[in-house]
């Protein structure tokens, strides 16, 4: 009876150790593909932010549309810069700092929350690959731009892109808001739906 009880306990301990070993093995594999701060800083040094001078709002509609697309393209490059789609918290802090060159801290965090999920078990951030922002980077045959200034030092832009097909129409709707800080614009809201 004691021998049988001893065998059951040993088997249970070995099974428990194996499960923990498998979990640790998975965590090690995940951490091996995690991008760190230094690697991300190297990548960011090659991704220059778009011009954010406030005179942009006085340019032609075509120039403003091209600039909005440039902001969107830069944002996508920053958010998708970890080659593995996964980074540690130090790299995430650098990403947030880089986004804050163009966005308010709140808007930068909204972008990160939309694009990444936090894995609390190992402390990494992983990209939601299905949440790519493609609306503004697609080509639209016709654009309509509406600019407004709801208050001094604030701008709102509404941009609609349309492409007709044989059996229908595809529509993209973009809305963004900007605040003047010194001689620069900072993005307070940036949303695109298609």
Provide a quick synopsis of the model:
This protein is of the alpha+beta class and 194 residues long. It has helices at 2-32, 37-44, 61-79, 89-99, 105-115; strands at 86-88, 116-119, 124-127, 142-148, 154-165, 168-181, 184-193.
Report on this model:
With 194 residues, the protein is an alpha+beta fold. The chain has 2 domains: 35-131, no CATH class; 142-193, Nuclear Transport Factor 2, Chain: A. It has 5 helices and 7 strands. The chain has helices spanning 2-32, 37-44, 61-79, 89-99, 105-115, and strands at residues 86-88, 116-119, 124-127, 142-148, 154-165, 168-181, 184-193. β6 and β7 form a beta hairpin. The longest helix has 31 residues, at 2-32. The radius of gyration is 24 Å and the shape is globular.
Topology:
Elements: H1 2-32, H2 37-44, H3 61-79, E1 86-88, H4 89-99, H5 105-115, E2 116-119, E3 124-127, E4 142-148, E5 154-165, E6 168-181, E7 184-193
Antiparallel strand pairs: 1-3, 2-3, 4-5, 5-6, 6-7
Helix pairs in contact: 2-4
Shape: globular
The helix count comes to 5
Number of strands: 7
Quaternary state reads single chain
- What class do helices, strands and sheet pairing give? alpha+beta
Using only C-alpha atoms, the radius of gyration works out to: 24 Å
Q: How many domains is the backbone divided into?
A: 2
Distance between the termini: 70 Å
Biggest sheet features: 4 strands, antiparallel
- In helices, the fraction of residues equals 40-55%
Q: Which regions are unreliable across 5 or more consecutive residues at pLDDT < 50?
A: 17-32
Q: Which strand-content bin applies to the residues?
A: 25-35%
Overall residue-averaged pLDDT value:
82
Adjacency order of strands in the biggest sheet: 4-5-6-7
Q: What is the element string, with H for helices and E for strands?
A: HHHEHHEEEEEE
